[in-house]
Amino acid sequence: MKFSTSIRHFQDTVNKAVQAIPAKALDPRFENLHITLDNQVLTLYATDGEMSITATTDVASTDQGNFGLKARTILDFLRSMYDTEVSFEVDRQQLSDQGIVNIATDKGRFRIPCTFESKAEKQEKSFDVEFTLSSEDLLDLVHKTIFACSVDGMRPAMMGVLMEIGSDSLTAVATDGHRLVRYRKPCNASVTEKQKIVIPSRVLSVLQKLVSEGEVTVSIDSGNKSVRFSSGGLVLDAALIVEQYPNYEAVIPLENEKKVAVERPLFYDSVKRVGRFSSIGDIKFTINPSSVRLSAENINEGESANEELPCTYGGEEISIGFNAKFIEAALAHLNGDSIIIELSTPTTAAILKPEKDQGESDLIILVMPVRMNN
After folding, report:
1. Is 109 exposed, middle or buried (0-12, 13-18, 19+ CB in 10 A)?
2. β-pair partners for 129
3. DSSP assignment, residue 361?
4. pLDDT band, very low/low/confident/very high, at 360 (cuts 50, 70, 90)
5. Does position 24 have pLDDT exceeding 80, yes or no?
């Protein structure tokens, strides 16, 4: 069995497939990169049992067959190489499931052991929901929500992003209990009733590395609780989180009548500066009709910081405290030059959102306040 290609072309495909393999694979079954050759089409498959990636690429060949390589071995070899033409010849040892891959380049010859054991069986899928998004829209949804996912293994549902699929919109929600993001985009899914799935944040993090352009087809198998993302010669399959997602709508305040308009870049930079002076990571906002004062202090070191920025606000003075990192992250994921902060009381969650309408998109970021010492 022989095929030839270029180092960089082959490496690009390998880089995609191995994203499914964890840095430390505890199960040896999931250490291999499974390779199938069918004339001029080379298919690479890798899985960790919960997520799998299939990537295809064109090569020069007239042969057929399949074999398995240690993923880290071939990846390390490719990373050490320069771009050149390369040929692979796979030889099987007699009466054995073991073999050798002979690799030839313009300057060298290399040998890597391989196996001919059958790869992990792919579970048959029966997709009942399917829709298509541009890669730009999908990556935007992921980028603006994944940062708020929980990392607490005791709350598995919150370690993913909730996707609510309606007939004309797609809503993505993420929360860790201290902050919450809800991002809604138009989408034509052609579903008769709203569908809800929770996609693990790790899956979406990998998806960010794989998709860059074109359209992405999202397919959902409700029976097997799995999702598939397809784009070009790439397919990512993953198990969904089956735990019930919290009722996020119940925590979004509906009566935040105090509205503060502030320039996002100035506010963002000020939060980053002032927040560094807090001994416990908290920052205090004192909001007046014409200005917002940011303050923080480190009593142990005798440090403190105060900054004042212009704002537009028509209510009575209010002081409220937040985790500075949460506010900083929220501002980093909002677009536009100006944002609106909606408030009610010092103990009620605040809502941050762009001041100007984002077309048909709808983004809000909710941050819970913290108690501040006077």
Report:
1. exposed
2. 220
3. B
4. low
5. no
Are 162 and 245 found together in one domain? yes
Predicted pLDDT at 122: 62
CATH of the domain at 263: 3.10.150.10
Q: Residues 220, 294: one domain?
A: no
**Residues 140, 226 within the same domain:** yes
Distance CA 126, CA 113 (A): 37
Maximum C-alpha span of the chain:
85
Residues 316, 245, single domain; the answer is: no
Say what the alpha-carbon torsion angle 306, 308, 314, 319 is, to the nearest 10 degrees: 0
- Whole-model pTM: value is 0.91
Residue 373 domain flag: no
Q: In this structure, is residue 102 part of a structural domain?
A: yes
- Integer Cα distance of 46 and 122 in angstroms: 11
How many independent structural domains does the chain possess?
A: 3
Q: Which two tokens stand for residue 154?
A: 């005791």
Q: How far is CA 329 from the centre of its chain?
A: 15
% helix, strand, coil for the chain, step of 5: 20, 45, 35
Residue 80 maps to a domain: yes
Are 133 and 246 in a shared domain?
yes
CA torsion 352-356-360-365 (nearest 10°) is: -10
Angle between helices 7-17 and 71-80 (to 10 degrees): 140
Residues 198, 156: contact at Cβ < 8 Å?
A: no
For 291-337, write each residue's pLDDT tens digit: 999 999 988 888 999 999 999 999 999 999 999 999 999 999 998 89
Helical packing angle, 135-143 and 201-210, nearest 10°: 140
Give the structural domain span for 199. Answer: 129-178+185-250
Quickly count: other Cβ atoms within 10 Å of residue 97's Cβ: 13
Angle of CA points 185, 187, 192, to nearest 5°: 125
